[in-house]
């Protein structure tokens, strides 16, 4: 018999992973109404399996075998009860909670009291959250579940199989890193959509703008410009949503840089944060001006598909090569042209590719943030064109005024920020 379990931090990571995976599978089974085990039961089952595995490290395989027997007995008992009962709410949740708490008691004896307390708290929350969890699942449609499954496929199946090393032209293409960016963008979009669906955020202009910026500020701008043609539309409110969405894009840029090039945040983040503050101020002023106008109803459709994610990955890879080649053959002037062109319709590609090149020492951090900001300003210019082509006067004037102020502030940052 071994005498130690993994360290507390590793224990928490393992148990947290087990909980997340259980919730994921339980989400699908809960959505299928004819089932013995649902979202809470699968979460408890995963925790139970993780605890049994940890106890097996200390006490050997007999503990694991006994756990299998106990679990099989619970499943048989629960299935028989399901057959005999007409209560649609019957299941294995209570029985699994009992098994988990039995294992938690054993963990406390081994000295991991903090882990035991956190697991007991998790069990209590799961048991108490029956109604909100079930309501959440009922609000998920088949299209939503399909998008979640696609994200799982991209993140948990495909991503671990890809090689994590630089290769190809100029040795800047890393398949793992490229696909991780795909997962990152799709995950952000899907999370924003689900938050808006479950918490009703799209009822107000501010939250509608936040969600639009997380999903796609360019698509949001085009959609709102078309909606401005409706007779009952409120131009200032639509303009406020558009500007808030564009401000969120720069917040997203900051997060992407922090994740992709964390070692260079002292150089790259300050000017980008100033830009966030400036465009945020412009958006806030516009929102205050529009506060007396009507409300906006957002679209209620899943935002992402695997096809669009793959296309983004290809775009990201192309931008990665173009930026590296421009740096090698044309110097900084070529870099800026590449950044402006790639940023017209999508800021994420130039942001993630530039940050990635910084993290692999292929690009200076002081140049990279300028490329990213230039790409963001090019995207603002592109959206100004969308507003002019698709919008009407009462939407065009406040939107272009806000975009113009944001563009002016960004140009001042590019011009006056010192090189370091």
Secondary-structure blueprint of this entry?
Layout: H1 8-31, H2 39-59, H3 61-84, H4 93-109, H5 113-128, H6 130-138, H7 142-158, H8 175-199, H9 205-215, H10 217-227, H11 235-260, H12 265-289, H13 306-342, H14 347-359, H15 365-390, H16 393-416
Q: What does this protein structure show overall?
A:
This protein has two domains: about 10-140, no CATH class; about 140-415, no CATH class. Helices cover about 80% and strands about 0% of the residues. The model has no long low-confidence stretch (mean pLDDT about 75). It is built from 16 helices and no strands. It is mainly α and about 425 residues long.
Number of discrete domains:
2
Low-pLDDT parts are none
Shape: globular
Strand content: under 5%
Output the helix-strand order.
HHHHHHHHHHHHHHHH
Rg from Cα: 26 Å
Q: How many beta-strand elements? A: 0
Query: Biggest sheet, open or closed, and with what strands and sense?
Result: none
List the total number of helices.
Answer: 16
- Average pLDDT taken over every residue: 75
The assigned structural class equals mainly alpha
Distance between the termini: 58 Å
Helical proportion, percent range: over 70%
Short description:
The chain is mainly alpha-helical and 420 residues long. It has helices spanning 8-31, 39-59, 61-84, 93-109, 113-128, 130-138, 142-158, 175-199, 205-215, 217-227, 235-260, 265-289, 306-342, 347-359, 365-390, 393-416.
